[in-house]
Amino acid sequence: SVLKDTDETIYQSKRVEPGKAITDVTLSRALEKGEYPAVIKITTTSLTDGSAMNGADVETVLIAQ
Length: 65
Known about the structure:
Layout: E1 2-3, E2 34-45, E3 52-64
Antiparallel strand pairs: 1-2, 2-3
């Protein structure tokens, strides 16, 4: 995940297998309370050779409490 205003990466996961999900996230640093426009950048790779495939950018708002 990247903060949209600063382009700072605040979370990067390891590879997630098909059918699995990310359920526990620890940001790279604490954020002050508030709302932060962010982009979740999704990249995919081939299961056979690891080559890059399609992906997506999902715009969202991260709410720190």
